[in-house]
Amino acid sequence: MDELDSALLRLLQQDGRRTNRDLAQELGIAPSTCLERVRSLRERGVLLGFHAEVDLTSLGRGLQAIIAVRVRPPTRAVIEQFQAFVAQMPEVISVFVLTGTDDFLIHVAVRDTDHLHSVVLDKLTERRELADVRTSVVYGHLRKTVIDLI
Fold this sequence. Notes:
The chain is an alpha+beta fold. The chain has helices at 3-14, 20-27, 31-43, 76-87, 113-124, and strands at 63-71, 92-97, 104-110, 130-138. 16% of the residues are buried.
């Protein structure tokens, strides 16, 4: 990673829909150089993809929560099966597999508190391996859209 790669990453994180010509012009490089650098970033696995950011409230899923879960026994098979189960749930935004007290943090977006209650009681607690669950409603969520190189 050099300064040009870093600059490309910053610009693409700010707006992944910018054209190659716009990127090259902003950085003062030839479009062919820009195209090759972006291609290299993808091939090296630095750029994983380009995504559209969606307003959850507009989709009728304005309530977010973090659900902390412990499973038992904490074996690889149990953890992988539970992770696969929650990953397919339509309410789940992201899943974090952890070390420490909790095995998972599950970020969900739902319609309302009744929907959240249903997710926890009707979907999660039905799982035999679930040992403990704690739910925290999210008042606000800030996600950095540009990750700086350090």
